[in-house]
Amino acid sequence: MPETSKPSTATPVRPRRRRRRKASTRPRKLPPYNVVLLDDDEHTYSYVIEMLVALFGFDRTKAFLKAREVDTQGRVILLTTSKEHAELKRDQIHAYGRDTRIASCRGSMTALIEPASA
């Protein structure tokens, strides 16, 4: 006797789809860096104030306070920004030139960049 096909009562199995994780649409923030000016004995307050006004746009009062801080503390944070911008500002300090008010001055002030603490 020929076999008759019976309708299947089983539910068809669908392949399981893997959920894709959505890529984060929020941009990640770049870590901040400090531009740090280091003290030396080869530059006058006038030079430091002039440089800070020219390179950072500080008013003369803020520039004087930063100059005093670098003189008394040995270092001062001038700006906290992205790494690329911090590198630019550091390089501008290094390229600013010697203090013509002091004959023995050999060049620009020293600055460095460092990761800002969270």
Helices and strands, in order, run as EHHEHE
**Annotated CATH homologous superfamily:** Ribosomal protein L7/L12, C-terminal domain/Adaptor protein ClpS
Low-confidence segments, ≥5 residues, pLDDT <50? none
Reading off the top of the CATH hierarchy, the class is best stated as: Alpha Beta
By CATH, the topology is Ribosomal Protein L30, Chain: A
Instruction: Please tell me the overall pLDDT.
Output: 89
Major sheet strand order: 2-1-3
Please give the number of β-strands. Answer: 3
N-end to C-end Cα span = 83 Å
- In terms of quaternary structure, the protein is single chain
Q: From the alpha-carbon coordinates, what is the Rg to the nearest angstrom? A: 31 Å
Domain unit count = 1
Number of helices: 3
Sketch the major β-sheet: 3 strands, antiparallel
**Residues in helix, %:** 25-40%
Can you describe this structure?
This protein is of the alpha+beta class and 118 residues long. The chain has one domain (33-115): 2-Layer Sandwich (Ribosomal Protein L30, Chain: A). It contains three helices and three strands. The protein has a three-stranded antiparallel sheet with strand order 2-1-3.
